[in-house]
Amino acid sequence: MESPSRTFFWQLTGLIFVVFMTAPLVLVVLFSFTGGDIAAFPIPSLSLRWWQALFAKPEFYEALRNSAIIGLSVSAISTTVGTVTALGMMKLSERAAAFVTFLLGLPLLLPALVLAVSLLSFFIAIGLKLGLFTVILSHLLFTLPFVVMIIFSRLRTFDLSVIESARDLGASPMRAFWTVTLPILTPTLIGAALIALSLSIDDLIITFFTGSGAATLPTLVWSMIRTNLTPATNALGTLLLAVTLGGTLIAMRLTRFRG
């Protein structure tokens, strides 16, 4: 049994790390409501002026539209393809399924910059015009593995007897899937889709290289930092935090994530 002093030490260490990790995020949100001209202490007053300045930018709505198109497309495609892939992996042996999981996870092992340059070189080599379509293809490369692993993990604990019962009652394989398998998997599928959406919306490096200047919310943040750094950047950062963290938390809840 650990002594009280040792327990206190580890609790204090954990608290320090939590504060260190969350303090920058808290400051981003706090400075988005400053009434001053710069993001710095002391804050003269609380105001929505920088949110109004953000919403007054025409490029914000273009970036929002592009992020929505890319994110929703990536989410829908990766969830559909990931579900089919996970169902196919269920028919493989354990060793073969582990090998497929390893292959799918290879892009996640590469640094984002290396992956972005590789994709850019590939698209140029095959003569594919850079734009929203190439960004969607690029995002599928790192969102699909997450979706497959989430759905496959749920299928591994799936009670196959309910499907066999439906088949015994005369249901075809397709009808059994739509009436039995899909309703049970729906919370997991929604969670996986939200994770894919959050990953896609939050990406900067791969989007920057493969989008040929296509404006998204992260690239707009980068542009605002380079040109004129104001608390409006904090407002946009807060919006991104709300979308990505909110989507991830809901996904964790739906997929019953436990660590």
How would you summarize this macromolecular structure in one to three sentences?
This protein has 259 residues and is mainly alpha-helical. The chain is built from eleven helices and no strands.
Walk me through the structure.
Helix content is 78%, strand content 0%. The protein is mainly alpha-helical and 259 residues long. The protein has one domain: MetI-like (MetI-like fold, Orthogonal Bundle), CATH 1.10.3720. Helix 1 crosses helix 11 (231-254), helix 3 runs parallel beside helix 6 (132-156) and helix 8 (173-202) packs antiparallel against helix 11 (231-254). The two termini are 25 Å apart.
Defining key terms:
mainly alpha; ABC transporter permease; 78% helix; 11 helices; MetI-like fold; 259 residues
The helicity comes to: over 70%
CATH class: Mainly Alpha
Could you name the CATH topology? MetI-like fold
What's the overall average pLDDT, rounded?
Answer: 83
Low-pLDDT regions: none
Protein name: ABC transporter permease
Organism: Taklimakanibacter albus
